[in-house]
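Record 1 of the preview.
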Amino acid sequence: MDTSILLPVESPRVNYLNATHGVKSWLLTKDHKRIALLYLASVSMFFFLGGIYAMFIRLELLTPQGDLVQSHTYNKLFTQHGIIMIFFFLIPSIPAVLGNFLVPIMIGAKDLAFPKLNLLSWYIYSLGGIFTLWALLNGGIDTGWTFYAPYSTTFSNTYVVAAGLGIFINGFSSILTGLNFIVTIHTMRAPGMTWFRMPLFMWSM
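->
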């Protein structure tokens, strides 16, 4: 006689990854953890794209001659590497990814104060990235990533205005994310989580 004990089959725990399925559930999500992963995918894409520009820059600098690209192309590579890495990787990476994921968890809140605004900020970030990539792919920019005059004025014949518009749009994403963090940390802390009991990461956000 079989004396083995039949154990009940446990259903998998529902979490932010398997609560809902499909592309639509990700693109319309209001879950702060999923939005953090959307940001992670986006900034990683820009990081690798900026890394490709850096690779071409380093390959060109192996020799004094312009044997890989000409000087005007090198200036564009240098500028576009800076724009991508500063405005679309360095600035949004820590607050948008780690902040979105950890802020509600570390203060004991269920989500950020404005979940829809949080998702909107990712779409604005993506829109700014599309504008900037369009400028880079349609002739590029050779002003240096700081856009100093006179290189960025009417003397430039590259896509300075389009790139500047993309960066300007991207700035609204950071503003909305920061506003969301301020309201969340100020109004949604768990009972007993005073200002001076908050982790330092919250203060940095």
